[in-house]
Amino acid sequence: MLYPFIKPLLFSLDPETAHHLVINLARLSPTLGRLSGIPLSPELSVKVGNVEWKSPVGLAAGLDKNAEALPFFAQQGFGALECGTITLRPQAGNPRPRMFRYPEENSLRNAMGFPNAGLLKIARELEHFESEIPVGANIGKNKDSTPEESIDELSVMMATLEDDVNYFVVNVSSPNTPGLRALQEKSYLSELFKELKSTSKKDLYLKIAPDLDDAKVIELTKLASDFKLAGLIATNTTIMPERGAGGISGELLLNRSRKIRKLILAQQAPLELIGVGGISNFQDVLEFWKDGGKVVQLYTSYVYQGPSILKKINQDALSFLKKHQLKNLEEFFSQRSIRDFV
Ligand SMILES: Cc1cc2nc3c(=O)[nH]c(=O)nc-3n(C[C@H](O)[C@H](O)[C@H](O)COP(=O)(O)O)c2cc1C
Questions:
Q1: Is the CB of 301 under 6 A from ligand 1?
Q2: Which domains does the chain possess?
Q3: pTM strictly above 0.70
Q4: Which three-class secondary structure string do you get for 15-31?
């Protein structure tokens, strides 16, 4: 209700200034989260790995990097929240401007480079956050650390946050940290997963880029299964050099991202897949369900549509259950052939 009035003001500001304004408001007034959000219906809960999502739509990483406004986002209607990307040491990220809008295409471009307050500060926020909405910590390497050092860094972060989050995500897919995407190599990831699996009992996900070729996607899916990860998150932002540095999200990313998700699901690996990239309405969610997926995350469409996107998707999901005479989403996902329904 409020967002249509606030949006023109926010969109008159530089995107990052608008972002900080929203995060500060959200941090100072979690009640606004409830007033502009929706209560969740128990029918929409769904088990993802070992974690109970309270609806099939989660908050993607990058919006609340420092976990400073989680009490606000927990009341918006998201089924799970992901903070980060967190690095061991605080870092400033790339020089500004580093966030750009493409309003006609409902898309964004960012070249943030993991600006964040660092592990210790964010750990304090997570320690104090209490909610029934599950929280994931998305972790990545500091810009100046080597791949070898990064294995220890990620392990320390997981050990520190182990009791305060429900799942972890290793982010090796941002286009904005030089050399980061090279860490999608099998040899590095094998070392990394060996270490991280012995550090934490929590569900572990790998977040991948949409710019990988098919063979690489299949290789990473196999690797994630071999190391008994909880699953993959697909995808991060995509590079479109003709538009400038950084990664593109939103509508312009949808097809590329969807293709990767379809390919992963076609492998029928014993993994969860959290779908993210260009999802902006219930049709997109339904398409993902048809392919065999369960839960999605949003960033860019939440920026363009505001909290009403959660209301729309959650209401459409409830109508879908009713139409097919299903008790709840769990019943839908437990049917042998999901495709028969849709
Ligand atoms: C401004 C901005 C910052 C982001 N920062 C992160 C980040 O720190 N870590 C991460 O894993 N993904 C980050 N992302 C990527 C999103 O989590 C998501 O994967 C991507 O935007 C595609 O989803 P969307 O089309 O719904 O936005 C960021 C995206 C945006 C737009």
A1: yes
A2: 3-341 (3.20.20.70)
A3: yes
A4: HHHHHHHHHHHHHHCHH
